[in-house]
Amino acid sequence: MPLVTPLSADHDLETKKLAEFFNETLGFCPNSVLTMQRRPAISKAFINLNKAVMANEGRVTSALKRMIAWVSSNSTGCRYCQAHAIRAAERYGAEQEQLDNIWEYRTHPAFSEAERAALDFSLQASQVPNGVDEEIKKRLYEHWDEGEIVEMLGVISLFGYLNRWNDSMGTSIEGGAVESGEQYLGKHGWEKGKHS
């Protein structure tokens, strides 16, 4: 049972309009947003930040951004965000082989060195204490420009917020996210946990 009950999608019409973004991303409006709208300024600011962070300005693809989100969420243990991120990666065209082998991104041939650098950055930036060091910086600069690095850290930071929000809130997970979580993450022990 969540800490705070999500409101109806019709509760705040401005949030509802902005949240149409998630119908493309996930196929539904997340319960996290429906809970945030108890304070509409938070739900609207969050959706606008999400749109800005996930916009593609360089070579960081939508699929890679969602895989970065998954690595970050996996690092922090948020099962809700793990399932949402892998679902969005799937919907944004991540290769099937990458989805099936996301746990082995460091060694699996489906991932390029540029993707590995981005995903290692996500892992190190999501840890406490933060693990970003000169080696991570060197690897990033071998493949990405500064604007692309900013885009990646935007995703990592956005999911830092979401991981804390959803794990603390015990946000109820939606059926579509459960389906994707079970399909791609279940073989490694993923389950809904407190997000029932």
From TrEMBL:
All copies of domain Carboxymuconolactone decarboxylase-like, residue ranges: 40-120
Going by the entry's taxonomy, the superkingdom of the source organism is recorded as Bacteria
Checking SUPFAM superfamilies in the record gives:
AhpD-like
Q: Which Gene3D superfamilies match?
A: AhpD-like
Pfam families referenced in this protein's UniProt entry, alphabetically: CMD
What name is this protein filed under?
Carboxymuconolactone decarboxylase family protein
